[in-house]
Amino acid sequence: MARHNEVTLYGQVSDEPILLRESTMDPKSRIIRALVPVTVIRGIRDFGAKDNRMRLDELTIMSGNEKIMDFIREWKLGDIVSLRGTLVTINHQKHCKCMECGHTQAYKGYSAYVYPIHARLVAQGYTPEQGLTDLRNNAEVSNRITVIGKACGKPKLHRHEKSGTPIASYILDIERKYRVKEDLDSNRHDFPAVKSYGEIAENDAIAIEEGGLVFIDGQLQVRDYTRTFTCENCGAAIQQKDQVTEIIPYSTEYLTGCYSMADVIAMREQAREQEEFAATQEMFGRNIPDGDAGWGDGGEE
Fold first, then answer.
1. What share of residues in the chain are helix, strand, coil (percent, to 5)?
2. Superfamily of 4-256 according to CATH
């Protein structure tokens, strides 16, 4: 399978770096991981929005590379940075607490990080206002991802409850190009969530089959949502806030194992004709034979 996973970011450091050491008891022990949140901006292009607004997302940068960790540890709140790297997902246990009985239980979750292979300090000490202006001026390179991966299943299509915008969701299997020191050597794949909007979503729902290979050019979105669990101890419902990082495609190319765009266009046209025929039947309150060319004008003389 082709391996491609590249992220380009231009953003503002939104908090001080977190340095994780070998020993939590020894503040001078070796640093094994550095994490830092960076705010980036993404324009709303063609994935369902009707305006030119821009949205801010806070992505977590994580590295175990000694040179990059030494560089990251010098970043300060407000700094402007640029970097190139890959999107990695790491499975781990999360915990939720029952408000009824106080029981804490584990559930399977995952987190997504941008793993840098190159980073650069652009400017220092910007205020949030200065940072926002700079991000707007660099919006085209602030948040960009291109990936090739296999769909883990057929996309699920639904419509936004208010706007009616089509939305397709699926998980992508991306084979890693680089080893991630923080993860097990046996983990050679990343599984980010993909969410497409509008016409792209409708095409995805038709074209993509389980195992189909796709190329996505898009941006990253960080979204909060609420998950519901049942308490193992008392059976009460647990509402747990969680967060997901999703790939938002600007465009999707359907490679092997998918229907082609020509197929998609033909199937959408066929579906449209069927909908129009069904609407006509309902309007006139009777069954109209498929292919009847004479109704409505009295037929042939």
1. 20, 45, 35
2. Nucleic acid-binding proteins (2.40.50.140)
